[in-house]
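A note from the maintainers: we've had questions about how concatenated examples are separated. There is no special marker in the raw files; a new sequence line simply starts the next protein. For clarity in this README we add a label.
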Amino acid sequence: QVQLEESGGGLVQAGGSLRLSCAASGRTFSMYAMGWFRQAPGKEREFVAAITWSGLMSNYADSVKGRFTCSRDNAKNTFYLQMNMLKPEDTAVYYCAAGSKLGSAPGGYDYWGQGTQVTVSS
């Protein structure tokens, strides 16, 4: 079992950057694919980025390609999302999740954090 806790959210101006972290507990972190999702008010949770257990393969939503980068440090049990060139439409609660394989569907992930708020002002 894995417990996840996100941090690093906040308020930033459009064009700015933030780095989100997701700290995982449990010795099996390195066995899981990890994903970032976000949910804006009144909208469904949507896929942002994901990475395989090894960190060798990742994929991204079209809306964030070229601006966001996910990475992981299995020695530190931590998963990251570097967000650059932020836009007001990136405003949402961001969640990290752990699952058995790389994917973009929320249903494919077994464990979720509580989320961290990201607000981008125009």
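[label: protein 2]
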Amino acid sequence: QVQLVESGGGSVQPGGSLRLSCAASGRIIRINAMGWYRQAPGKERESVATITITSGGSTNYADSVKGRFTISRDNAKNTVYLEMNSLKPEDTAVYYCNAYLLDSLSIRWGDYWGQGTQVTVSA
């Protein structure tokens, strides 16, 4: 099976910083892309930042986090990071890691998700 394990969430004051990590492991042949999504109470899950594992590591960010968040990867460790700076109360949400990968058991490409980590920004 495939596992995505997130870490690094927590509580921080406005203007503070947090760093999230997500490590993918298990029956993986290849990862095409990884990313972070978030879901605030009463809202739909939204994309925060994505990065391709192949093709030079191109990135994509939600407009609301551009200039504040940075996504990066360590291909050797199948790990993706999200550096979050200048955090705002509206960044409060459960953050989920996502990977689009080729599963060695099913031999199919598919989306896999972590269990989520809470990020709370408040004074």
